[in-house]
């Protein structure tokens, strides 16, 4: 498999901290896969995402995108935040088209891409609404569409579904999987929910720095599993992951 | 979405009516001499006379307009200068370190303390009055802008950067609109501060203006004229604040809803 992101010996120590949050971490993300990342609170999941996204600079080591070092945030690396970070002064369409406008795309190009994305996230009828009038699930769909509008090479989700109720979360999972299938993008999803990690990840990265293993990637035979097919084998697989984390 | 808090308009109106009745009673029963507290009828008739014949040979509307022009020029100047400086100070620590201590030093000083100096520096005409009001209006806007910038959700900035925005675009498309609710709060406070300084500004070397009219009337114990001036200032102050609130609701329509 072709690597799209390479994390090499990544160490990150926050200023003033006596211990590194990430210590000599190595990770490869393959082009076109969905990698979910799971670990205990404080294990450095979000720090890892922030470093890959270019918001944080490594203390040592490097992060490469297509073999080139990531030196800062850029449109090729889309991010969906937990609190969605949508701009309340813009309506749904303008939020989705924000990145394209910043990159000076033609108005007609912006309109056409926004319209396609609105259809894909099933929010065409909400295009003129302001985001504060939308439900949590709808806002998260707008945030996903906004991250996709630039046609980034990797889309990262920072516990983006954690604040949603279970029904809405399942709905969003399906939207994410449908978009992944149709757009053939690479998704990198941070989560604290083990079922979510198993449902959404082709591969699962388990972070257990407290056990001396910065990150360990396992294959996931239960990717996109239908909840009706959950059996004893699934439960054993899930418990194995849990035991590694706890 | 937050429901707007209910306002009991009936209670507000009733409170004002009670105040008017008490005022009327106190003056009708001659509890205080008319020179200290003129009756409501006297104030109304004085207002009608002032409207017809003006004060000191100058029409009442001219007194009013000149006060408003002084006030609004000072506030507009303060907006033009304090908003960019406050936004930049909120974002760039070097600029903040340069200006903040100076503004914090000037802010608590009562304007009258340096008014005479201003007159000596910029002259006795309109400039000193406008500068005095400007200095009163500047700090609230500047401080509100700094607070607005510092409160900008960090994820707004990060997501703009990840969407391809340049630092300049982040400033104009994310930080500025994010800070707008605070900027409006600052402007409303600034208008209030300038308003409370307007009488002081018209105390020295003025020959017109509502503030001057009040000061001049006080010299001759014309309490009815003073009441007219005070009521005009009060009503105008409330009207200005309401006008700003309407504009705020139109421009910063998302405030409190996100």
From TrEMBL, chain A:
SUPFAM superfamilies on file: P-loop containing nucleoside triphosphate hydrolases
UniProt GO MF annotations: ATP binding; ATP hydrolysis activity
Lineage of producing organism: Bacteria, Bacillati, Bacillota, Bacilli, Lactobacillales
Keywords for the protein's UniProt record, in alphabetical order: ATP-binding, Nucleotide-binding, Transport
Signal peptide: none
Classification via PANTHER family: BICARBONATE TRANSPORT ATP-BINDING PROTEIN CMPC (PTHR42781:SF8), SPERMIDINE/PUTRESCINE IMPORT ATP-BINDING PROTEIN POTA (PTHR42781)
Domain ABC transporter: 5-234
InterPro entries noted in UniProt: AAA+_ATPase, ABC_SmlMolc_Importer, ABC_transporter-like_ATP-bd, ABC_transporter-like_CS, P-loop_NTPase
Protein name: Nitrate transport ATP-binding protein nrtD
Organism (species): Companilactobacillus nodensis DSM 19682 = JCM 14932 = NBRC 107160
CDD domains attached to this UniProt entry: ABC_NrtD_SsuB_transporters
One Pfam family linked to the record: ABC_tran
Automatic annotation (TrEMBL), chain B:
CDD domains: TM_PBP2
SUPFAM superfamilies named in the record: MetI-like (SSF161098)
Membrane topology: Multi-pass membrane protein
Residues spanning the membrane: 7-26, 60-85, 105-124, 130-149, 193-213, 225-244
Family affiliation: Belongs to the binding-protein-dependent transport system permease family.
Pfam families per UniProt: BPD_transp_1
Residues of the ABC transmembrane type-1 domain: 64-244
A Gene Ontology term for the protein's cellular component: plasma membrane
Localization terms from the record: Cell membrane
Swiss-Prot/TrEMBL keywords: Cell membrane, Membrane, Transmembrane, Transmembrane helix, Transport
Biological processes annotated in GO: alkanesulfonate transmembrane transport
Taxon lineage: Bacteria, Bacillati, Bacillota, Bacilli, Lactobacillales
Species in which this protein is naturally found: Companilactobacillus nodensis DSM 19682 = JCM 14932 = NBRC 107160
Tree of life domain: Bacteria
Protein name as it appears in the record: Taurine transport system permease protein tauC
Listed InterPro entries: MetI-like (IPR000515), MetI-like_sf (IPR035906)
């Amino acid at each position: 498999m072709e690597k799209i992101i390479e994390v090499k010996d990544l160490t990150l120590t926050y200023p003033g901290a006596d211990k590194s949050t990430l210590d000599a971490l190595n990770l490869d993300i393959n082009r076109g896969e969905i990698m979910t990342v799971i670990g205990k609170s404080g294990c450095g999941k979000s720090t890892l995402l922030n470093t890959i996204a270019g918001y944080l600079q490594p203390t040592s080591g490097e992060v490469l995108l297509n073999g080139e070092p990531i030196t800062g945030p850029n449109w090729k690396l889309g991010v969906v935040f937990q609190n969605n970070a949508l701009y309340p002064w813009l309506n749904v369409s303008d939020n989705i088209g924000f990145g394209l406008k910043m990159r000076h795309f033609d108005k007609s190009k912006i309109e056409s891409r926004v319209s396609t994305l609105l259809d894909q996230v099933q929010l065409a009828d909400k295009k003129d609404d302001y985001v504060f009038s939308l439900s949590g699930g709808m806002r998260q769909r707008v945030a996903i569409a906004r991250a996709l509008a630039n046609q980034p090479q990797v889309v990262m989700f920072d516990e983006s579904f954690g604040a949603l109720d279970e029904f809405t979360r399942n709905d969003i999972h399906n939207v994410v999987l449908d978009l992944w299938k149709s757009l053939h993008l690479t998704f990198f999803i941070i989560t604290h929910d083990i079922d979510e990690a198993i449902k959404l990840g082709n591969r699962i990265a388990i972070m257990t720095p407290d056990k001396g293993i910065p990150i360990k990637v396992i294959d996931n035979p239960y990717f996109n599993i239908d909840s009706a097919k959950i059996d004893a084998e699934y439960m054993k697989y899930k418990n194995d992951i849990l035991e590694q984390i706890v | 979405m937050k429901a707007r808090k209910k306002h009991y308009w009936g209670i507000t109106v009733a409170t004002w009516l009670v105040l008017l009745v008490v005022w009327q009673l106190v003056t009708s029963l001659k509890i205080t001499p008319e020179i200290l507290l003129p009756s409501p009828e006297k104030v109304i008739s004085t207002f009608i006379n002032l409207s017809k014949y003006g004060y000191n040979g100058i029409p009442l509307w001219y007194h009013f307009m000149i006060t408003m022009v002084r006030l609004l020029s000072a506030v507009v100047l303060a907006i033009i200068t304090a908003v960019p400086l406050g936004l930049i100070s909120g974002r760039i620590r070097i600029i903040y370190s340069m200006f903040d201590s100076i503004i914090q030093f000037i802010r608590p000083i009562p304007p009258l303390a340096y008014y005479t100096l201003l007159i000596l520096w910029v002259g006795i005409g309109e400039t000193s009055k406008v500068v005095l009001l400007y200095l009163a209006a500047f700090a609230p806007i500047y401080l509100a802008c700094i607070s607005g910038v510092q409160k900008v959700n960090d994820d707004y900035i990060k997501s703009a950067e990840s969407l391809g925005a340049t630092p300049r675009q982040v400033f104009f498309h994310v930080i500025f609109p994010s800070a707008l609710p605070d900027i409006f709060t600052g402007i409303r406070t600034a208008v209030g501060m300038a308003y409370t300084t307007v009488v002081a500004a018209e105390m020295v070397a003025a020959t017109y203006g509502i503030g001057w009219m009040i000061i001049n009337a006080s010299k001759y114990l014309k309490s009815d004229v003073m009441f007219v001036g005070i009521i005009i200032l009060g009503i105008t102050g409330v009207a200005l604040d309401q006008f700003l609130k309407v504009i705020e609701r139109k421009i910063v329509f998302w405030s409190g809803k996100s």
